[in-house]
Task: structure prediction
Amino acid sequence: MPAPTPHALPAARCRAWAQPAGDGSLALAIELALDRGPAVALPAFSPFIAFTLQAQADGRPVAVQQPALDLPLHPVQLRVAPGAPLTLHPPIRLRFAGHEAADAESAAGDGLVWTIAHPREGVTLTLHLDLPAPFDLSCPLALA
Result:
């Protein structure tokens, strides 16, 4: 069977943002959407952590500290249909270097808190989704 042409694939897109979590960290949200085509079922795990985070400042990579994470995962099917975006809320929280709580929690090794080794100002963040096509996408991460 030939590979699908780009026009045959659903028009998938993603949007990601981080907003204050109340403890000085930022909570993540990722929205998956289809503009057209049939609904898509994606095999995944809950809680959703199938992504990597890339940070840059002044065009240079910035380290993202990701302590070891040991969570029970449960297989799930994510369903995305045209006109019905799906929003995921990963358990990962972000902190920036220089934040007092970030330094303390990094030392404690909380696997759910990732620390970006740069102050918040001037940092560009991108999430790379580890999902099957058509959602094998990269999403700029907007900071609230």
Q: What stands out?
A: The longest helix spans residues 100-108.
